[in-house]
Design brief:
heterotrimer; A mainly alpha; B alpha/beta; C mainly alpha; A: mainly alpha; 10 helices; 82% helix; globular; B: alpha/beta; Rossmann fold; six-stranded mixed sheet; four-stranded antiparallel sheet; 37% helix
Amino acid sequence: MKLWLGRAVVLVVALLAWEAVARSLDPILYVGPSRLPAALGRVLSVRDLPPLGSHLWLTLGEVVAAFLLAVASGLWVGFVLGLQKTLGRIYEPLLAVLYAVPSVIWYPSLMLFFGLGPASKIAFGFLLGFLPVTLAVLAGIRQVPESLVTVAVSMGAGPGAVFRKVMLPAMAGTLAGGLRTGLALSVVGVLVGEVLGARAGLGYVLTYAYGLLMTAEYAALVVIVAAAVLTVDALGALVEARVRRWAD
Amino acid sequence: MTAAEAAPIVVEGVSKRYETPSGAVTAVDGVSFTVRPGEFVSLLGPSGCGKSTVLLMIGGLVRPDAGRIVIEGEPSSGPNPKKVALAFQDPGLFPWRTALDNVGFGLELQGLPAARRREIALGLLEPMGLKGFEAKFPRELSGGMRQRVAIARALALDTPILLMDEPFGALDEQTRLLMGEWLVGVRRRTRRTIVFVTHSLQEAIALSDRILVMTARPGRVKDVIEVPLPFPRDLGSPEVADLRAKLWGQVREESLRAMESSA
Amino acid sequence: MGRLAVLRWQALSVAVAFLAWEAAVRVGLLDPLFVPAPSMVLHALPSLAAEALPRLLDTFGKTALGYAIAAAVGVPAGLLLGSRRLLHDVAMPYVVALYGVPKILILPWIALVFGIGLSTAVLSAAVFAVFPIVVLVAAGARDVDPTLVTVAVSMGATRGQIGRKVLLPAVLPSVLTGLRIAMVFAILGVLLAEMLAGHRGMGYLMQRQAMAFKAPELFASTAIVSALSVSVVLFLEHLNRRLGQWR
């Protein structure tokens, strides 16, 4: 009980401080929380801004496409490298190197190749989401206890059965975690793509408002998108927790 | 000076209560005993009987809610590194320090110069069979070795009193027996007063001059048993067998009670 | 399979990939306007180097600055959050939530307020890098083995001694890990800022090359920045290993 009170206090203090700072500075650049509800209304009423609904759907579609691609290829590559030990020894370090490269480096090349349409955003989201899924599959396979596999084999289970009945359930938790991270990163990838150069989508609406110096509407949009992203991740966390509980 | 005043440790009617989510729990209830100079006393009892709490109170790490502890004639009010040193079940070695630097830690706190610390530490590690390991990190040592380093660290403070909380509890049986023999040797050489917490009858009989049997929670002193046998002790002798039977009779009752209350 | 054999296979795979890429462009499978052949990229490299060098220094200079700010703010904040139970339980959910919000969303605003150039990029790097530092350092501070503190207390250590001789060394590995991970984020932040609102630095150059369809130059730039980024990270990992020999 005390905890929730403490958290509420922190939130209120932060909002008050934000408001105070925003009011003392240039209102064109700095927007306090008090201006947000009105700005939100303006955003939703589609007066000076493009219709949020259709752009939201586009972004959602891009995220889903990117995520599905990332999961499919991530699982495939992950299992190939994870189950085929020699292939894994050769190619996993190469994958790890990719992790050290900041993802945004690929963006100009992808934009060059795919243009400014949804394809480049999907490509970017796919690129970002692919790696966590692959790494999670590899980690998941590694942490399956040898003893479990031994028990199954001693009971006469063939490789297919061992995979389905022992490995998959044992790695379910780690896999779920990887998928959740992959989803979060696919979302980021798509959004970054839309902000850097697009003609449609949530990121585009954001830069539209910013370009016209409609800072209040821009702030409201940031809050909406941030809330949406956090909700998606929270759902992902819920699914992951469920899977982990079932797997144990 | 009377006999009581010369005693290194006097525990007078100490009690300790803890607040848990399910209500207040009395861990220790009115425990009193005196430890004689150079004596090896074991606190024996089932898990949760408060023996560790009593030890921590003697060490000044836990404050009694009632009663008091007197160390060498002075009431205890906190950690007393000049008089009391502790060794725990978890060796608690600092993983970023070598064995040598771990042993010298207490001396470092007191401001002793490095050369002197090194000298003392090496002097303690060698008779423990750890010569050549002083530059190793805890990660490179076995469980038994780590515990020896931890005890050496406690011995380095050169305190008259040594408190040990199930120090060999995490070791396998062979190592435990060997460590027990080693501790007997250490004690013979250094003549310190030792209070030793254990739940093993074997250990208590092998090492102690006197055994305090504690009840299940709330912990009280159930019985005090003298062990007047000479060292080194023949664990197969009829005296030991008698003692074990007697002890088991006491302890079994309390163990059952402890098991039932936690079920 | 021995280490040498693995390395040989890796080198072979990379070589084969490049050869296949080259062949695909020559044969006409890939349009060189969008995907230039490796030979064309190599050819563009020397002339690019002259233009790229000052921009590289600019980009990595901003990264270093932003990174330093993130560390200066993040490490103490993480230590504070990790060591005080109440503060941690109350404030941590907010930190984690902010960590989960894509920072790209506020980048346009930073550009708006701080303009095109140095401050935006440095601030962007700092904002991106500070979160992993705080989270990892806080976790490290929380995970300090309490037995170690008990041992020190039982030996009469003062608060200062406990902080210096126990807490600090215990927390160091987490701090180093956080700093290592934050580096990639800092580079990311700078490049993003340069692409969105910059007029110097590699990010800006790459964006311009893309707009002008100068594919070989773009790929060459991408290669250079990737190589440097990987080197920095590998160096930090090496440092991490050297300093953490006792683990």
